[in-house]
Specification:
Elements lengths: L4 H7 L5 H7 L7 E3 L5 E3 L2 H6 L6 E7 L9 H14 L4 E5 L4 H4 L8 E2 L2 E4 L1 H5 L5 H21 L6 E6 L3 E3 L9 E3 L10 E3 L1 E3 L4 H8 L3 H9 L2 E5 L4 E3 L6 H7 L7 E5 L4 E4 L14 H10 L2 E5 L4 H16 L5 E6 L1 H7 L12 H22 L3 E6 L6 H13 L3 E5 L1 H4 L5 H13 L14 H12 L5 E3 L1 H12 L7 E4 L20 E9 L4 E6 L18 E2 L5 E2 L3
Parallel strand pairs: 3-16, 3-17, 4-15, 4-16, 8-11, 17-18, 18-19, 20-22, 21-23
Antiparallel strand pairs: 1-2, 2-14, 5-6, 6-14, 7-12, 9-10, 12-13, 14-15, 22-23, 24-25
Helix pairs in contact: 4-17, 7-10, 9-10, 12-14, 13-14, 14-15
Length: about 550
Amino acid sequence: MLPPDIEIARSAKMRPVLEVAHDLGLTDDDLELYGRYKAKIGLEVYQRLQDKPPGRLIGVTAISPTPAGEGKTCTSVGLTQALGRLGKKVVLALREPSLGPTFGVKGGAAGGGYSQVLPMEDINLHFTGDMHAITAAHNLLAAVLDNHLYFGNELNIDPKRVLWRRAMDMNDRQLRNIVCGLGAKIDGLPRESGFDITVASEIMAIMCLSEGVQDFKERVGRILVAYTRDGQPVFARDLKVTGALAVLMKDALKPNLVQTLEGQPALIHGGPFANIAHGNNSIIATRTALRLGDYVVTEGGFGSDLGAEKFLNIVCPYGGFTPDVMVLVATVRALKLHGGVSLNNLTQSNLEALRKGLANLDAHIDNITNNFGLPVVVAINRFPTDEKSELNLVREHCLARGVSAVVSEVVARGGEGGVALAAEVLRVLDSRVGSYRQLYAWNLPIREKIEILACRVYGADGVVYTIQAENDIGDFTRLGFDQLPICMAKTPNSLSDNPNLLGRPTGWRLTVRELRASAGAGFLVALAGKIMTMPGLPRVPAAEKVDIDEQGEISGLS
């Protein structure tokens, strides 16, 4: 049985971050150190290297996630470690964890077992302060807006049509909907508002899609914060604080350099959720990694219907990226759950349920190959209870479809357990099969883009729009936002908008209840089903297991 993740991480011998940087050809002057094992890379590094040909880009995604676990981040880290073992100059590019899930239901997001990024405790907690900077910038804009209302409201903002809420990096359902400004006259103007989790903030999305400080300022200026009483848009630039927000974000815009458990470089930067935002690390980090390494491994959050779709339809066009291959992570346990087995019985062999659950795997393979033209390598993340017959069934099913499938044991064995997977990825890269393409043109009408996602990616029969959604589409078309891509906010637990529909649902229609304009980030958010931008804590939060002793040793993080 494996030791807890935190014990494995603590027993690892880390390399000084300067040593990791030197392997990439960086100098001491390129870094801003945060102790011995963390650093930020200056924004001038990419500018200096921009004429260098980029490395090969490997995306990692997964089947629809389940409580049984898929191990997408573990696979990303383990694949990086395995490529390093094969002598390749490889860089890992990941998102930063959020405190909300760390202390909520999911736990940390630094990998697991012998495939982790280090220092694990720092990365899962405050890291280099990026999340706090984003939260501060977001709330400065909210404070300035309410201050404008208090001191005369020269812009004629309608208090009932203020769109910009507040943010915090914690799951707190109590703050989803609030009334602020109560008390005496000097305490502000009473109105309804609410909080979103920081990773859902448009400031987070802008940081991850910006190319530098100037681009960040321009994008922040385009944030739609409210409407006037006569229905005209009010943007953040009208409140004259774009410069102040950029000052708060000056360090957060720089990518963070750390390392895998086996010493390969990892750039961890930005952390938008894929179910309520675009779900990928920053363009700045990926661009930097592509100039520093021959191979870059990155991942999108949740399944290919969310993080990978947004990576391929939003991030790649903005970043100018051309991905070469996608690794699709699946587990026997998760596939059996998609096939109807209860969570308590997943350790028991059930080939019939496994065959049924393969429909979910097929949907994600089809999404990547048919919609985006990319080759797929299926990584079967092995659990100790998986039987050989089950692993063979998944592998043979994939081979019958003309798709490579390799058993991965990176959690238990680190890079050594991913060498076969890495070798197959390299083989597919060398064969140059497939060619990346976007799923839709951004200049299509809003409804058509949503319906392409619903029908071709999720497998819906069509789309139902609420009156609110219809009104939003009209407003955003009038404002010229109809040229933006769609960022769907929906449950990650199903290909549909109903988290209880597992496998590959058929005979359903996607319900879009409202749209929100992230005009600064450069996309429209369509909210489907009951998805929320401020999660809540579970009945037993992960926070109950976390503790620290007199010597400063942390326990309970995973």
